[in-house]
Specification:
This protein is α+β, with helices and mostly antiparallel strands. It contains 13 helices and 20 strands. Helix 4 (105-115) crosses helix 5 (121-133) and helix 9 (265-281) packs across helix 12. It starts with a helix and ends with a strand.
Length: 410
């Protein structure tokens, strides 16, 4: 395949999947003996479309890619799926049907990455069904739907695709704790009302925790929420999310490992969970973690005593101190953590998880650019860790005085 064409396809259909990644401008020489996709170093993946291609492109980001052999769906699988999907349609890329073929390319990548080397047409059909409802209303309200694909054949029955041609299909499930299951051939299997799962899966938004918990042993959960976003779960994790028309791939364990401070894994996990919750609740948030050596410095960036929970000089600090009690951030209910983060301003935590301030107005250095939350996250990073959750859902984490994010999600 011509380098120019593969580069154009990768820029448009592969790079958006993997947060923080970019295609390097230079190509790498390749022979027919090289693999189509291979890891060059922990931060770089080389790929080409065909064995005979004399070049490979380089996909790189500052954050390490997940390791092959981890047993998880990882970034390399997404690149593998991209290459396979491009090869599936390469014969038609010079035909009048090029636009139609490319319109399904990202859905093919999602399906191949989740289902392995063989494409699963039923999964694509389910995604298409939800996509058709994402811009529609039922009785004047946005639609929320949840589906479950079971990895086996149950025999014939009514087809999922037929049911979702009709309005009644939009209210059979609620997108949170009920779902309509179907088999690998697209036949409807059953309706399930899901029980609360304790503990809730860490690598999924709280609002879809039951769907995530259901998606184990090869089962795949798919939801459409009222914001028109499509979320896909497997192995009790959110793997793919389509937001504002763009598909994103989420790899959780390496991202959690990038949250190097604080040292307490339970605090880090609670922060990560809450980042996902705030992101998909679309509230936006700003989180700062103060390391032990900066214990006495955080008040310099949070100058108002009204924001200090221990001082209890304002109605806000008194109320929130009463609600939290003696609990640390990691011991609070996820729903309460999300609601605290939704308060306008920054949430400041100690390295042990003590909540120091909520809704804090920060003293930001002059000349800061990029918006209030970004400036706040960068200022907080000087105390240890600063995280920005945008109202559109993107998540970035900063350490020290480095201007580049140490991790990016969506």
């Amino acid at each position: 395949m011509e380098e120019k064409l593969l580069r154009e396809l990768a820029e448009q259909y592969l790079v958006p999947f993997i947060s923080g990644s970019e295609l390097l401008p230079d190509t790498i020489e390749s022979t027919k003996h090289d693999k189509l996709v291979g890891s060059f170093d922990p931060c770089t993946i080389h790929f080409k479309a065909e064995k005979a291609d004399h070049y490979r492109l380089a996909l790189r980001r500052s954050q390490h890619f997940d390791k092959v052999g981890s047993g998880r769906v990882i970034e390399k699988h997404v690149v593998d799926a991209f290459v396979e999907a491009v090869n599936d349609i390469k014969g038609g890329l010079n035909s009048p049907y090029k636009s139609d073929l490319l319109s399904s390319l990202q859905r093919r990548i999602v399906s191949k990455a989740i289902c392995g080397t063989s494409i699963q047409p039923t999964l694509i059909t389910a995604i298409d069904n939800l996509n058709s409802w994402s811009t529609r209303l039922y009785e004047g309200k946005p639609i929320s739907i949840s589906l479950g694909l079971i990895p086996e054949s149950i025999g014939e029955g009514p087809l999922l695709s037929e049911a979702y041609k009709h309005d009644f299909g939009s209210v059979l499930t609620n997108g949170y704790d009920t779902l309509l299951t179907f088999d690998i051939n697209g036949y409807i299997h059953s309706h399930e009302s899901l029980l609360s799962h304790t503990p809730t899966p860490s690598y999924a938004p709280y609002r879809q925790a039951q769907i995530a918990a259901w998606s184990e042993n090869g089962k795949i959960g798919i939801t459409l929420n009222r914001l028109g976003e499509i979320l896909i779960f497997k192995d009790q994790k959110l793997l793919f999310a389509r937001r504002s028309g763009i598909w994103h791939f989420l790899i959780h364990e390496p991202t959690l490992a990038q949250i190097k401070k604080p040292n307490n894994i339970e605090v880090r996990k609670a922060i990560y969970e809450s980042c996902l919750d705030a992101s998909f609740a679309r509230t936006g948030a700003c989180i700062g973690v103060v390391t032990s050596k900066n214990t006495n410095k955080w008040k310099e960036i949070v100058p108002s005593e009204a924001d200090h929970l221990q001082e209890q000089t304002s109605a806000k600090s008194k109320t929130i101190s009463k609600i939290i009690g003696n609990k640390k951030f990691q011991d609070l209910d996820r729903r309460l953590r999300q609601e605290l983060l939704a308060i306008d301003g920054a949430t400041i935590l100690s390295y042990e998880g003590t909540v120091l301030a909520v809704g804090a107005i920060l003293r930001i250095p002059g000349g800061s650019t990029g918006g209030g939350r970004l400036a706040a996250a960068k200022a907080l990073s000087n105390l240890g860790l600063g995280i920005k959750i945008s109202q559109d859902g993107g998540i970035q984490g900063f350490y020290g005085d480095s201007p580049a994010p140490q991790f990016s999600i969506m």
